[in-house]
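Service request form, structural biology core

Requester: graduate student, group of Dr. S.
Request type: structure prediction, single chain
Budget code: on file
Notes: please return the result as structure tokens.

Sequence provided:
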Amino acid sequence: MKKSTIVSIVAASLLISPLVLARHVQADEVGSNSVEPVLATSTDQESSPDKSVSEQVASSENAEVNKESSTEGVGQKAVVEEAIDSNQSIGEKENHFDKAVPESSNVSDKSATDKGAVPEKPVADTGSDTEKKVDPREENNSATVTSNKEPGNDRSATRVSNPPKTTLADLSEVTGQARTEEDSKKEATISEAVNQLLKWASTKEGQVGSTDQDRLAFAKSLGMIDQKAKGSDPVTDLVTMVAAAKKLHAAYRAERKTPLFMNGRAQPIFPFTRGDDPEHYSYENSDIVRYVVYVETDYDTDGDGKPDLVKTFVQVPKAAVKGDYKAPTIFEASPYVAGTTEERTLEGLGLKEGGKFDMAKLYTKPDKRKAVKEVSTEEVAKATKPKDWYYVNPRESSDDYTHYDYENLNWYNYYLVRGYAVVTSSGLGSKGSDGINTTGSDLEVAAYKSIIEWLNGKRKAYADKTSNREVKADWSSGNVAMTGLSWAGTTTFGVASTGVEGLKTIVPAAGIASWYDHFNSQGSPLDTGASNDLSWLSVYTSGRILDKDDWDKIKDYYAAYITKLNELQHKDGHNYNGEYAKRDYTLNAANLKAAPLLIQGLNDDNVKPKHFELMLEAYKKAGIDPKVLLHQGNHVYPSTRWAGTTVAGQAFNDLMNQWYSHYLFGLQNGIEHLPQVTAQDNLDPTKWRRFDKWETDNKITARAYSKREDVTVSSDFYGTGENWTTRNQDAAFHSSAVSASYAAPVDRDITIKGHIPLHFSAAFLKGDKKHAHVSATLMDVSDEEFDVVKEEITYDKNGYSTRTLEKETVDEKGDWHGSNLDSLPVKEYKTHKVKSVVISRGWMNLANPDSGFNSASSSHSIDLKENEYHNYTMYLQPNLYTVKKGHRLVLTLHAFDPDYIYYADPYEVKFKTDSISATIPIVEESQSLLLRYQPNEKDTEYAKLADRILAIAKKNPAVEKDNQQDKGSGSDLKPGGQMDQQPPVGRDSMEFRKEQKVEIANLEHKENDASSKEVALSREARLPETGQKENSWSIYGMLSLLLAGLWKVISGRKEEK
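Core staff response, request fulfilled:
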């Protein structure tokens, strides 16, 4: 053979050998997933259905992998306050959870609901609610927390200074994957190890994530790697990684599919099947069982002589339905989700007010139905069609948007794949249900309570509304959590106030504690027209209209009810009365026992922060220590169907998973030892702060000072030429005819924490006494622009406002959901530059001088007399807000607040300067401030006036009559002339739902685009995923080269012959 021929053959062989080897390796990888390797062990978790949930959890946790983020300080009292940055979870720094702790009592007991005494490490008493700074760079900064780690459970303790490196060959020993000689030399990265181990543990494609980012997130959730680990880091603890992978491997292959608990939380081991694909959905083909039942309530609110049935939609992993385990339930009771009318008045529904109605009849209790037979969950689920939970609502759709209900169908998928059941109901008067919507009344609450009773076996539900075939929640453990935003957050607190058994925890987000304070504030309305009626929300959610035949049965009856409700609500003006008492859940504080995690947006102008304070106080009366999560958002749930967010670097859903794992599954992970308050910073949204209590003993005592003894403000924006759209920005720097402004410089950073009582003595001067409304704001003001998270309000020429609180995407796929679910973007609030921002505001009617903080204190009003002074305490909304050194605190007083109400007939109010004072709760040491009057540049006389001697502050100034006319007040008031700016039209409290629909439409657009791309890609030729992207022409070239070499050999031999 010629030398050149031999060279050609060798060259061709060298070129083609990597391809052959790559395919050989790929074949081994595929094979390793289908054959259980020798290293596989049986699961450590007991899955016997006879065991209680807590026993199953305990056995799982006993074998759980321990990791660095495990709780070091469980059982230790939270420090007074700490600051934490965005890349660090609460549990990681504070060490309040992630590690099993001994169980002290049943979670349903009050003593277990965060009341238990915890040993406190001595801390120096500084005399103030001092903030303790935590340097995020210090890994083990736990000076105020005593560690109680068990020997051998600390991964860091077992590490040596220079551990031997882990190679790809070491991984192959575990996974059985083919290896090369190079593998024994190459050090494995965390990403390589995670990918191989999770792939080895899985049983099918996509089960452990579709991207490296997903799989790293899964590994962190499992406790396989440290929370701060990066994919490119070298492997330093293969033993821990393998142990975690083994547990996952066993769980996927267990004969009985039960929830897997590792690292203090339920893991996403259950597969997900969509419920919004009616053409392909079936019970047989779905891993999530979906069906509808009709729960029987006690009352007959629609007058048909039978107890109302409420339609209830269930989603639960099929494993629970098959009896592998008993599933706890996350329950959202939301009147919105089954379909709304988009109308606010009877006229909008084509009905007229009128007719007689006896409210007492709503409380009629007819005899209960008699069940004729019992049918199984499986039977009902097979008979239920997707159209029962997924249908177009024409009233919520438009030409460019099709709206589907139930709108929350996919909001809780994260929890379904972790073994939770999800139950939804829109309650009385909704599509598919009986009854009428009564806007938050005790009847509405009782109907939702009935669903929890069905879940724990104490009430009947039926397969449909006519056959009387009973369906039991045989898959349910009886443990229930309630959560939701807005009205769905309201129902959580309302149902909790009944003390219903089985409700273990509530997580209300922007929930209403007392409906009076949603529509009013200390005798002053917070909306005008129909939007100030309890009835408008009932009209908005009366989904029975979506079924014409059903609606026709009750529409006249319903119109008579709404007419009566309007009458009773307003018979006492804007005072608290019996209709509001039916909707004041704080009155039932003694019944509370479900552990609370109260969520509130500090920029929420819809359901205002006062409500979380009312809930907090109610829980304290019940002897329960509530937990509070305060974010910088407005009227939003922290994580949604279209985007996620983080709490101190930890995904919000992950935090909630730990919470639910503890209170629903009985997992002892220490989450109950969270500090009472976790709050997002207003100046830097990446920073979070925490406090062991909401109240503070420290305060700023701020008194107003002016060279004048009194000041008069007018409600007449038009007559005085003042622009109502810029009133706050203007008042930040000077007073005017419509505002009195007082300012004091701040000589240090201060953090306001709580609501602000504002004391003053005022007299109504002239105008319409029926609407003697006053308002106040406390502002943060600087001559230089500063960054802050705050909702921006803009107005158009017609008086309509637009509220914007911008977010930015910080990680396009960072909100990991697990299983075969898609990851979502992580978004974070943006700051914007301002010179002034409203910290807090309050509203009050001068006819209600006795009105206090609690709703019921606003039940009495007086007849105002001109020039007669009364003493008032207005309560400005609570906030947690930091004011920087060098800024000014500015207090302003106004007549009505045009962001909420508008009255064309002008009036004037006079305030006594020396009576004006504010008690501002702060974290830092107490101090006094003098708020000096800020005159308008047109008020040239003010500078010429002599200073007054500051009067001694009076705690309770006497009520007195001033017979003197206000100097410069002029003649009787007359409406001013029209300006280019139109009168305000108030706020739209349904703006948050419009934003939701925009987000849903955008998400559907993205999903459709993604589906189109997937179809296009499927038509393309795909190469095996070997880690290399190869050009098929190079293969042909190599083969050609090899053939050419062989041809030369053959030809050469012929020539030799």
